[in-house]
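Please decode residue identities from the backbone states below.
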């Protein structure tokens, strides 16, 4: 008996010692890996020494049995490879980290890996791959309700789209990012969103909107940050817009203010050099040659020191223009050729176009050759942009398709597992076979019914879309007729203002026709077109005033409505209501938000709906207004198509004696928000 107890005591101490040794070994491995990773990040060591420490950490991490710990180590190791610029080794450690995260079904680690991978592609200008992995990371963060992270990824995608000249795609993605940040109650990145929109609209030559969003960007900065480099960035961007508008005085003022911001040289050396170059260029455009070309050379020296190739190209282009202004063609040609060589080497096609355009001016004998090359590159750029946008669309489709298939497979696997467990419990093979046969018949029947229903819905949808297109096309000539009629009256009444009036009307007409091609447009654009129309009409006739009011909770930028539904009733209020009244007219439009609808109430103080309709009916020589009928048809179709409750109500405004003193139109429009 004593021998038995002694054996137990010996075994206990042996087991306890083994556990203690195992724990000590795990702690030692952990401490070693962390220590080696820190040494690998020490910039004072040589590159080979740092690579050696990373390799040791990687080999040790492979021996760790705990999957969660090993996953953390792989992430640290992959980031260390990144810091020393070893992209090939980074990809290997990244793959280990991703495979382990997938094995652990750790959504956050999977998304984090995709995000890191996308950032590397982004930094190395491999934008299509960056776009792909940003999208994959965004879908995961969005699905697990990590709203702020999802917003940041949307912004990254938007910037890639902008850099590839997909301005419409970038605009929509940026608006989604703004909505996401607002939903997360996160304001710290709104500056970046508004700044991106400002750059987009500048590239689209919509300078007023560009300035508006850059001002919004400044407002979005916390007060303590307004003297930092971000403010200088916005001032530089505004200066560039003023350059594009040929307002060189305001451009100079913004660049100068940007340079005066405290410590901008130390906080963002690249930005400081850009501001310096742009300040010099605005002085050149103002024919102010003081401090020139010294400012250009100061900027070039800084950019040379930090190897900012894009900036170097821009500097040399500006120096070429400077010497061309002084008619020093030799130096002008030298800088233009140097800029051209850098642009070819870096494959900077946008700058390449500028250099060929400049060379054609500096070297007129060879201008044909340079202009031919300009056209070739311009054409290839357009083709490349189209291919990139198609690729983005394909990536979007493929990632969604793969995820859908994965989700279906996972769901199917869960179903099969559940059914298999049920059958094992029953332990009756015959019932299992019968169940499978019956289940298959039911599934096949459901699939056939669903497919048939989807086909019917698709046919109905296509028919509805064609009807919508037909009705929108009918609105165009109707609006055109009324516009031409207005011009005719303008010619008779105010011939001295006809030219100015025709120009304004043509601009309005173009906007209206462009909007009419779209199924839905931003409510802001529709209100802007109506405001322009009323301004023109009131300036011409001087018989009425107008008011447009918008509810505080209605975000017109992000709310979309069908175009050309409101304008016909505004026209009717003027032509058939106010024009026939003997008092000064007033047209008011009131926009409010309802569930899935935008309500627009149009009120005038004219002769009233009933009297106007009777007068139009008696006027055999006049035309019959078809706009109301077309709008009703369009609303009926929208309701069928989208299961909405859009509606139109037209009624007299009555005084206390039941006498008509105007017309009220209540138009409930189908809408959606982004």
């Amino acid at each position: 008996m004593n021998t038995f107890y002694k054996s137990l005591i010996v075994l206990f101490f042996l087991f306890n010692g083994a556990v203690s040794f195992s724990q000590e070994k795990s702690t030692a491995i952990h401490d070693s890996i962390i220590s080696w990773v820190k040494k690998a990040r020490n910039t004072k060591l040589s590159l080979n020494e740092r690579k050696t420490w990373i390799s040791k950490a990687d080999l040790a991490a492979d021996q760790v049995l705990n999957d969660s710990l090993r996953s953390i180590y792989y992430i640290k190791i992959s980031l260390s490879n990144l810091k020393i610029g070893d992209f090939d080794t980074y990809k290997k450690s990244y793959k280990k980290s991703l495979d382990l995260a997938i094995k652990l079904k750790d959504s956050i680690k999977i998304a984090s890996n995709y995000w890191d991978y996308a950032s590397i592609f982004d930094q190395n200008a491999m934008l299509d791959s960056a776009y792909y992995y940003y999208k994959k990371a965004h879908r995961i963060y969005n699905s697990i309700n990590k709203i702020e992270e999802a917003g940041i990824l949307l912004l990254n995608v938007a910037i890639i789209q902008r850099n590839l000249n997909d301005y419409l795609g970038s605009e929509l993605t940026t608006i989604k990012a703004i909505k996401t940040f607002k939903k997360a109650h996160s304001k710290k990145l709104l500056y970046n969103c508004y700044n991106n929109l400002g750059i987009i609209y500048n590239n689209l030559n919509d300078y007023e909107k560009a300035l508006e969003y850059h001002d919004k960007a400044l407002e979005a900065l916390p007060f303590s940050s307004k003297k930092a480099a971000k403010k200088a960035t916005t001032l530089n961007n505004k200066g560039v817009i003023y350059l594009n508008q040929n307002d060189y005085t305001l451009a100079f003022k913004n660049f100068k203010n940007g340079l005066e911001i405290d410590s901008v040289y130390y906080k963002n050396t690249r930005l400081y050099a850009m501001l310096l170059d742009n300040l010099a260029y605005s002085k050149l455009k103002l024919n102010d040659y003081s401090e020139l070309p010294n400012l250009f050379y100061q900027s070039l020296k800084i950019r040379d020191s930090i190897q900012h190739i894009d900036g170097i190209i821009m500097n040399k282009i500006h120096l070429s223009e400077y010497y061309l202004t002084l008619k020093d063609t030799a130096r002008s040609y030298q800088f233009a050729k140097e800029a051209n060589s850098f642009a070819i080497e870096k494959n900077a096609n946008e700058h390449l176009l500028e250099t060929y355009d400049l060379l054609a001016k500096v070297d007129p004998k060879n201008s044909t050759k340079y202009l031919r090359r300009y056209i070739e590159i311009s054409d290839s750029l357009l083709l490349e942009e189209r291919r990139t946008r198609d690729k983005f669309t394909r990536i979007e489709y493929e990632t969604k398709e793969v995820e859908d298939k994965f989700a279906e497979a996972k769901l199917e696997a869960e179903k099969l597992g559940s059914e298999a467990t049920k059958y094992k419990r029953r332990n009756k093979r015959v019932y299992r076979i019968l169940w499978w046969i019956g289940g298959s018949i039911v599934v096949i029947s459901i699939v056939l019914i669903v497919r048939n229903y989807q086909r019917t819905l698709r046919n109905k949808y296509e028919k509805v879309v064609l009807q919508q297109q037909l009705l929108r096309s009918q609105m165009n000539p109707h609006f055109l007729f009324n516009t031409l009629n207005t011009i005719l009256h303008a010619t008779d009444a105010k011939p001295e203002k006809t030219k100015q009036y025709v120009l304004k009307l043509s601009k309005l007409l173009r906007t209206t026709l462009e909007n009419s091609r779209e199924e839905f447009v931003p409510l802001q654009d529709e209100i802007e077109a109506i405001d322009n129309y009323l301004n023109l009409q009131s300036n011409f006739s001087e018989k009425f005033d107008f008011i447009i009011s918008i509810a505080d909770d209605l975000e017109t930028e992000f709310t979309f409505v069908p175009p050309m539904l409101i304008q016909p009733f505004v026209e009717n209020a003027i032509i058939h209501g106010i024009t026939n009244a003997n008092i000064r007219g007033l047209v008011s439009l009131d926009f409010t938000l309802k569930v899935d609808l935008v309500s627009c109430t149009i009120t005038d103080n004219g002769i009233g709906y009933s009297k106007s309709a009777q007068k139009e009916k008696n006027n055999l020589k006049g035309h019959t207004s078809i706009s109301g009928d077309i709008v009703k048809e369009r609303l009926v179709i929208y309701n069928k198509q989208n299961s909405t409750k859009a509606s139109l109500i037209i009624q007299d405004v009555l005084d206390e004696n039941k006498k008509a003193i105007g017309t009220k139109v209540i138009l409930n429009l189908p809408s959606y928000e982004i």
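Observation: The beta strands are 521-522, 544-550, 559-561, 585-594, 597-604, 647-654, 660-670, 672-673.
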